[in-house]
Amino acid sequence: MEGIFAIWQRDITKFFRDKARLFGSFSMPILFLLIFGGGMSGTMENMLGGSMGGAAGGADFNYVEFVFPGIVAMTLLMTSIFSALSIIEDKDFGYMKEILVSPISRVSIAVGKMLGAATVATIQGIILFILIPFIGLSYDYMSLIQVIPFMFLLASALSGLGLLFASIIRSTQGFQMTVQILVMPMVFLSGALFPVNNMPAWMDFIVKINPITYGVDVMKKIMIDLDGLSSEVREAMGLNLSVFGRQVTIFEEILFILAFAIVLVLLATMSFKRANA
């Protein structure tokens, strides 16, 4: 546990000392908020109202409120996976050799790196909550507190995915290219930025096996007051996620993310152990 804590503490310290990374983490979420929140809010709300026979259909719906939890989830995804890049950098600079010859087990090193990445990602997600009053949103404070443990769970699963790639890929350039190819489809086919219902069958299959889909759906169900939305709005915006014709519950989605996290943690630690044996 001391080894895990030491590695976790090192990643947290590096995050707070790197001011450019700390403030730069705001750039991508703010950009997406401006593009999808500010630029598309009127269009989406008008389309929603038109599909229901008038502007009244979208009167009780705020598109920025819909997209904000998805942007937080996108931040968790990108931060968790790209944090594993530090493993390749540590190999290049020789730090990994030093830590591998220490009495710390390789499994403890992998777990410490995953917990460090998950903590950093969760902190960045929480920092985004500061923007809530400035963009005209009013989430319930209890819902924000309730969503934080799930954010850490989701970030842990995604950091395991990043560690798995980092243990397989040897170069920084190869890691960045592979992860970018993986991350963007996961974001756009998750319902984070726009509804993903009524898609072609092959694309709908990808949506349903995408773990970010369930992570985004849980965060929206916790943060957004669904009782204040009509059933037509929830259906039009894909807030009634269903699998095989059956609507999934928050509990089932959390169990899925938990199982996904356990599997990824096991695979990542096994791969890390073999790669650095």
TrEMBL record:
Residues 20-275 form the ABC transmembrane type-2 domain. The lineage of its organism: Bacteria, Bacillati, Bacillota, Bacilli, Bacillales. Belongs to the ABC-2 integral membrane protein family. This is Transport permease protein. Pfam families: ABC2_membrane (PF01061). The keyword Membrane applies. It is found in: Cell membrane; Membrane. The chain crosses the membrane at residues 20-40, 66-88, 109-135, 141-165, 177-196, 254-272. InterPro entries: ABC2_TM (IPR013525), ABC2_TM_bact-type (IPR047817), ABC_2_transport (IPR000412), Nod_factor_ABC_transporter (IPR051784). It comes from Halobacillus amylolyticus. It is a multi-pass membrane protein.
